[in-house]
Amino acid sequence: MGQLKLSTDAWSSQTVFILAAVGSAVGLGNLWKFPYITGENGGGAFVLVYLACVLLIGIPVLMSEIALGRAGKANPVQAMSNLARENGASRLWALLGLNGVLAGALILSFYTVIAGWAVSYFVQSISGAFVDITASEAGTHFEGLMASPYELLFWHTVVSLATIYIVSKGVKQGLEKAISLMLPALLLILLVLLGYATTTGAFGQSFNFLFAADFSKLTWESVLIAMGHAFFTLSIGLGTMMVYGSYLSKKGSIVKASLWIAFADTAIALIAGLVIFSIVFANGLEAGSGPGLLFETLPVAFGQMAGGWFFGTLFFALVVMAALSSAISLIEPVVSWFDQNWGIKREKAVWILGGIIWTLGVGTVLSFNAWQDVHFLGERTFFGSVDYLTSYIMLPLGGLLMAVFMAWVMKKDQVQAQIDLKAPWINWLLLDLKWLAPVAVLVVFSSSLVESDSVIWMIALSLSVYAIYVWNALKKEGGEKI
Ligand code: TRP
Q1: Substitution candidate for ligand 1 out of 231, 244, 266, 329 with most atoms within 8 A of CB
Q2: What is the mean pLDDT of residues 334-352?
Q3: What is the pLDDT of residues 49-79, one digit of tens each?
Q4: Residue 442 to residues 55, 236, 240, 398: CA-CA distances in angstroms?
Q5: Atom of ligand 1 nearest to the CA of 238
Q6: Quick one: pLDDT at residue 1?
Q7: How far apart are CA 153 and CA 365, in angstroms?
Q8: How many angstroms separate the alpha carbon of residue 283 from the centre of ligand 1?
Q9: C-alpha angle 332-333-336 in degrees, rounded to nearest 5
């Protein structure tokens, strides 16, 4: 293999890094996924578990992942290999990076399909299709879109091409600027919607639904979903934050950055939830209606409010942009791996990978129509299976191993060179990474498996064997370039 390249692309500043990381974190996970899984899992207790996961597992893993990237100075596969070598651990740690680049490609394959729905809604909104729309008309509209594979495929293609185009240009060109304009605008529109939500008469009910915890409804499966979502929404466990961290200069504060990312991400998800459930309850809609929730509710709000055409169009444009700034961060780890380790230039790599990911996405397109009743993992459609495998298995496992590496394998002075925390905070963090985060992930993981079926059992079992294998390899010396 040729000469290896390290990450050199430094961000223009620490602020730009934070913006790009927030741009990655804030996406469909906040606006589309959080509300619908909260609806499906009964509200309050689920939200509380999710918040606890963000605080106790998410933020510590986020800090670790950025730190591993900055210390390893390369794409996730190479960064882990570099760090393993420096710390006398096995080169098999590179598999952790591999798990990430694979998960990134899998997530992106359905992410572009869902982002495509938002592009379609943006176009519909411009044409005035949502003016005075009723809740049942909005539902019918969404069902119509789901029923037409060619339409879905078209929008999936549009988003895939946009993602490929941006990434082929490099992260710095254009993206930095787009995000710094877009995020404030998104927040502003959400606040306008929040204002509207208070006029629906169901705001209090929505608030209660999100924050009044009734633990009797909680199953291990929903705890797993809450935990998986904490990983998904913060963009951790995969290598996105590792690559972004590898472009961060030594001077930037990882602690400050992580706290900002987690705060912005959580605030946006909660506001989106408050808005959406106000509309749900005011119109007698079903909170647990699934992936269509965002698309069946918001047109109703825009159809009724003053200036709704304008705000609606802008909102869907912003959803698309939020999705794009996340989409590029899903493909960046694998693209930089191809570029740095395989000598395949960014421009070429992104087209090859984009093509593969687009093809996988066809499975998600069909999951909503022709393959609606075709099951893959357990009772899940193709889309459901890819989502389950990545969000609820690969990301938590990736995050777990990152925590383990950071706390058990990295030398303490190396950790301290990255994490700008003073005692006692640094000790609390290490304690959390050593015990709390890994044990919590394993407990949730195994308990939810007891509740589900055998295929998933088998996947989990093989993944656990793989985890133990990596863990064992830890003790062995060695590690060269891979
Ligand atoms: N966090 C993004 C969202 O909420 C999705 C995302 C981008 C992601 N990069 C990631 C999820 C890396 C997991 C890992 O929409």
Answers
A1: 329
A2: 93
A3: 999 999 999 999 999 999 999 999 999 999 9
A4: 17, 17, 22, 12
A5: 14
A6: 40
A7: 6
A8: 31
A9: 80
Query: Which residue carries 């093989």 as its tokens?
Result: 462
- Give the pair of three-digit tokens for residue 375: 């099951």
Residue entry with tokens 């309050």: 44
Distance 176 CA to ligand 1 centre (A): 17
Query: Residue 311: CB partners within 8 Å, gap ≥ 6?
Result: 189, 192, 193, 302, 305
* Total number of residues shown for the chain: 482
Half-sphere exposure of 474 (CA within 13 A, CB side): 17
Q: What is the mean pLDDT of the chain?
A: 90
Give 197 Cα–ligand 1 centroid separation in angstroms: 27
Which regions of 12-86 does DSSP assign to beta strands (E)?
A: none
Average pLDDT over residues 358-368: 97
- Give the pLDDT band of residue 133 (cuts 50, 70, 90): very high
- CA–CA distance, 481 with 91 (Å, rounded to integer): 8
Best CA proximity match to 353, nearest among 168, 92, 481: 168
CATH fold of 14-473:
Amino acid/polyamine transporter I (1.20.1740)
- Chain CA centroid to CA 154, Å: 23
Cα 103 to Cα 98, 394, 396: the distances in Å are 8, 7, 11
CA–CA gap between residue 307 and residue 131 (Å, rounded)? 10
State which of 65, 107, 186, 227 you would mutate to test the pocket of ligand 1, scoring each by most atoms of that ligand within 8 A of its C-beta: 107
Give the mutation target among 175, 326, 328, 389 for probing the ligand 1 site: most ligand atoms within 8 A of CB.
326
* Eight-class DSSP state of 33: I
Residue with tokens 């590029």: 328
Q: Ligand 1 centroid to 330 CA: how many Å? A: 7
For 273-325, write each residue's pLDDT tens digit: 999 999 999 988 899 999 999 999 999 988 888 888 988 898 999 899 899 99
On the 0-12 / 13-18 / 19+ scale of CB atoms within 10 A, 427 is exposed
Task: Pick the most confident of 4-8, 185-189, 383-387.
Answer: 383-387
Place of tokens 């370039």: 481
Neighbour tally for 413: CB within 10 Å: 7
Q: Are 92 and 470 in contact (CB under 8 A)?
A: yes
